[in-house]
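JOB MANIFEST
job_type = single_chain_structure
chain_count = 1
residues = 359
[input]
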Amino acid sequence: MQQPSRLPTHQSARAGREGDVLAVVSQGGATVSFFDAASDRLLGTTDVLAEPHELCFDPTERLLWCTSAYRSGYYHANGGRRTEVTVIDPGTRRVVEVVDLAPEHGPHGLALDPARRRLYVSVEGSADRPGGVVVIDTATRRPVGRIDTGAPGPHWFAVDPAGRTGYATNKEAPFVSVVDLERGVMTAEIEVPGSEGLAVSADGGLVFVAAPYAGAFSGHGEERPAEGIRVIDTRTASVVDTLPAENVVMPVHVTSTGKLLAGEMRMEPDPVYLLGRQAPGRLSVFCADSRRRLGELETGLGPLTITSSPDGRIGYVACVVSSVVDVVDLETLERLARLDIAKSGEPGAHGLAYLPRPS
């Protein structure tokens, strides 16, 4: 088994994690890897359908959901959109079921409402209807509804803590879609340039959105909007602030302790490549309430997904280009370890899920 690159361990950050597991998608390897959260030891892997993207853990059913968006490639350059979501038993690391959402396709973002036992899966649009979110009953593992989001490419989806409102970022549409989850309808468009990851504050009052869309590295003659994180006030459904960034931001995440984590994808000029070449990424940390910048840390190449431990002490940054996960002490902003994620092609590490041990 491949072992992680370890740095001197801070025992206080590791304390109490025995039995917890970190699950990591390898998009190029078509696997989900499981690591011991206390020791970073690789426990095993599970083969899944090609092009797995995101993960979501359901603590009630003790099941792990994994989307597979494309047959090959990525958003703008793929070999056809898939229609399946894979369900895994993390205890045995075996596939329980493959749920086919056809005719829906391009499943990507996942958001769970454990109280109502609903899982929301973002899907891409087609010629006859816009993109949206499929609603799945987590007890039966069957779709029970669909909510339009008014744009072709809703790629990330988040639900407020009350489970009543959902937010979809749209890569190419200039707005964030707001949906009423109880009525199953879209209720608002919040003006934001084509956007990537998003996260909702603990009280549901703010939504943090990474924008503009990372695929538009070149403005093609048009002035590119400033990089950063748009801050949305959910009461007024409007942008009230922008946290600036030097580089394209893709993932954002809010920890249980109120820290806002953002992954910046950095590029270096290169005469061979039009868009340059990947440089080490950056994890930027803010206070979600005050929006004050707390610090930063260099990461692997292409930070694409971020999650954290339930106590908010440890952050995990999946870096798709170098196919590693950086394990970060969020109090000291030191890297504790670097997990190598196996891949058979490009790209590599993508979706993440933290699985607390059964209580």
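[summary]
Confidence is low (pLDDT under 50) at residues 217-221.
The helical segments are 11-14.
exit_status = 0
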